[in-house]
Fold this protein.
Amino acid sequence: MFSLKGKSAIITGGGSGIGRAISVLFAKQGALVHIIELNVEAAAQTIDEITKAGGNAIGYSCDVSNQAQVIDVFNKVGNIDILVNNAGIAHVGKLETTSEEDFTRIFNVNVKGAYNCLYAAIPALKKSSSAVILNMASIAALVGITDRFAYSMSKGAIYAMTLSVARDYMADGIRCNSISPARVHTPFVDGFIAKNYPGQEEAVFEKLSKSQPIGRMGKPEEVASLALYLCSDESGFVTGNDYPLDGGFVKL
Ligand code: NAD
């Protein structure tokens, strides 16, 4: 079940958190994993973990918001069956405290970055007999998290991008879905707490954990498990959908 043997997967932001957990699990299930990362040292750590476990992974230094760099990397990779658009950055602020610079930065990475990778991936995915795209959205796209104006907007764009791509490329045999996690305990969350609540890290971590109906944050490995299903042949009938992975956040 859920074997990725013989498949080639590109995972953006595979050096940390959710992207690292997806990279490690996909390699364990037999995929050749290509990690696209801004942070090459972080990518090297993921590759080391994969290699020690007997898997195969290659890292590429690349800023997903730079189209020329993305196209160059995809040309180097060649054939692919799976694209996981996972790289993303956060921003805290309501509309009034979101500068044009903040807005542009968030959209350049979270939205244009995903567009750049899709644009570069489609020709190769058209040649695959089991092509699949997975985009990392967020519950911010579904409920509009407080104080996350630009971030919520950017994840809303990912949600719509998923539907558009699923429709346009269904006839080419390419499936496209997204996952919308609630808070998952990764360096992304730790960095947010450290930056915004210095000295209160433990208390804020506890408060954020309890703010989720299930009473804790998600684990990167839990996102990776759903990602594996959505990128495997077992989910062959699944396309054009978003999957909240949220400990009950959206509906309870
Ligand atoms: P993380 O910060 O731990 O990892 C993100 C990785 O992306 C980092 O290794 C970083 O170097 C890389 N990256 C950032 N900008 C890049 C760029 N321009 N080009 C290439 N690589 C780049 O984050 P995470 O928590 O693992 O989040 C991964 C994804 O999941 C993001 O899209 C995030 O928005 C989404 N998400 C996270 C949570 C959460 O609570 N952690 C919740 C919902 C959605």
